[in-house]
Amino acid sequence: MDNKGIQKGSSQKILVVEDNQDNRELVVKVLKINGYKVIEAVDGEEAIEKTKTEKPDLILMDLFLPKIDGYEVTRRLKRDRDLRRIPIIALTAHAMKGDMEKALAAGCDYYIPKPIDVRELPKQIKHFLKPNP
Ligand code: MN
To answer: Nearest Cα to 70, choosing from 98, 54, 89, 52?
Structure first.
């Protein structure tokens, strides 16, 4: 097909929830290079709003956020019938066993410790995205 878009990531939409600007810009850049559409949220409230309005295919969720933390955002989204199927991957620097369990208990589907590995990230998220029709 003569699709102008970059083949790798397709038009799938990823919501990046991260309050730290440097971290957010890095993740956004990696995702865009890999052909994904990216939406950004800088706090928990915005994360919930944008999930509802944009219906992303996947959410990358920092757990420590202003207003509503990532655990609570995840719990709320996973209680919502329309939104619970969206995979949520937690991102946090506190890569300790307890945090990982807490993230999964809140409803996160997977957990990626920070700092992110820019080469691994696309592979790590790929498993949680449905292949393009
Ligand atoms: Mn944070």
So the answer is: 89
- Sorted by where each begins, the domain ranges of the chain are 13-126
Give the distance (Å) from ligand 1 centre to CA of residue 43. 8
Nearest to 56 by CA among 75, 31, 33, 21: 31
CA of 123 to the centre of ligand 1 (A): 23
**List of the chain residues with pLDDT < 70:** 1-10, 94-96, 132-133
- What fold is seen in the domain 13-126? Rossmann fold (3.40.50)
For 102-132, how does the pLDDT look when each residue is reduced to its tens digit (9 = 90+)?
A: 999 999 999 998 889 999 999 999 999 987 6
CA 106 / ligand 1 centre spacing (Å): 17
- pTM of the model as a whole: 0.90
Distance 7 CA to ligand 1 centre (A): 31
